[in-house]
Amino acid sequence: MLVALSIFQLSYVLLLSPLIFGILAKLEERIESKQGPRIFQPYHDIFKLLRKESVIPSVASPLFKSAPYVSFSFYMILTLVLPIITAFPLSFGPTVDFIGGGLTFGAAATIKKLSSLDSRSNYSHLGTSRASSVGALAEPIIVLIFIMLGVLSKTNNPYVINNVLQHSRSWYFSLVHWFVSASFFMILIVELGKLPIESHSTSELGMIDQAMEMEYSGIELAFFKWGGYIKKFLLMSVFLNVYTVPFWVPLSVNIPGILAYSLIHFIKLIVLVVILALIEETISKLRLFKIFDYISISFAFAFLAILAFYITRGGF
Amino acid sequence: MQGIFSLTGFFLIVLLFFMQWEVYVKNIIITFSVSSFILSGFLLYLGIVNEEHILLALSALTAAVRGFFIPYIMLYSLRKDTWRARESEPLMGTATSILISVLIVIFAYILYRSTLYGFIKVPEGSLPIALMLQGSFLMISRRNTFIQMVGYMVMENAIILFSGYIFPGLPFVIEAGVILDLIGIVMIFALLMRIRENTISSGTPDSYENIEELKG
Question: Which residues is B22 bridged to in the sheet?
Answer without folding.
Answer: none
